[in-house]
Write a structure and sequence with these properties.
The complex is a heterodimer of chains A (114) and B (113). Chain A is mainly β and 114 residues long. Chain A has no helices and 11 strands. The chains are: A mainly beta (114), B mainly beta (113).
């Protein structure tokens, strides 16, 4: 069965600092991996996705993530945090075995300090 | 740009009442999903729907829940007799193909009193 683990329910970084949000997954077949962002009182917006092409995936708002099969990880990074990045970030996995339903991590709230 | 829409944005209902949450997926999409997010918790899969039938459902999706695609555009989630613990944000999503990203609606906040 699939599962997603996001390390750290809250991550706090200074504006301009590197953002690193961790995601590890388990899947018995090649997975599809996603990062979604949720701003306060809003819906879920896709940041980026991995679907078995390039292992380094670039998304919107300057975010990127690298799929590392050996580490079963898909960590999200951004070189320089901006105040507008403050939101909750969810990692999700899907695969063919589960009819592509999304299995979600618990989410990481990103706090940006001025 | 096409988007998934959901109505209402907020629904307040009394325990034991029936509610119907409505979604209009993106028009050329074939797979439809409902998820829920209880306040402060992770997003949970409820059900997926393809070719006019349920393709997968979670343990949460018990006999009190049902889904329907009554016409070519709407996709509804019905809760027959709501419980306090059904209070959550309910998200509808759709995708053109199973492996592609799911596009989410803005959600319906359901409050059961």
């Amino acid at each position: 069965a699939q599962s997603v683990t996001q390390l750290g329910s809250h991550v706090s970084v200074s504006e301009g600092a590197l953002v690193l949000l961790r995601c590890n997954y388990s899947s018995s077949v090649p997975p599809y991996l996603f990062w979604y962002v949720q701003y306060p009182n809003q819906g879920l917006q896709l940041l980026l996705k991995y679907t078995s092409a390039a292992t380094l995936v670039k998304g919107i708002n300057g975010f990127e993530a690298e799929f590392k099969k050996s580490e079963t990880s898909f960590h999200l990074t951004k070189p320089s945090a901006h105040m507008s990045d403050a939101a909750e970030y969810f990692c999700a996995v899907s695969d063919e075995d589960s009819n592509y339903q999304l299995i979600w991590g618990a989410g990481t709230k990103l706090i940006i300090k001025p | 740009e096409p988007e998934v829409t959901q109505t209402p944005s907020h629904q307040v209902t009394q325990m034991g009442q029936e509610v119907i949450l409505r979604c209009v997926p993106i028009s050329n999409h074939l797979y439809f999903y409902w998820y829920r997010q209880i306040l402060g918790q992770k997003v949970e899969f409820l059900v997926s729907f393809y070719n006019n039938e349920i393709s997968e459902k979670s343990e949460i999706f018990d006999d009190q829940f049902s889904v329907e695609r009554p016409d070519g555009s709407n996709f509804t989630l019905k809760i027959r007799s709501t419980k306090l613990e059904d209070s959550a944000m309910y998200f509808c999503a759709s995708t053109a193909g199973g492996s592609r990203e799911q596009y989410f609606g803005p959600g319906t906040r359901l409050t059961v009193t």
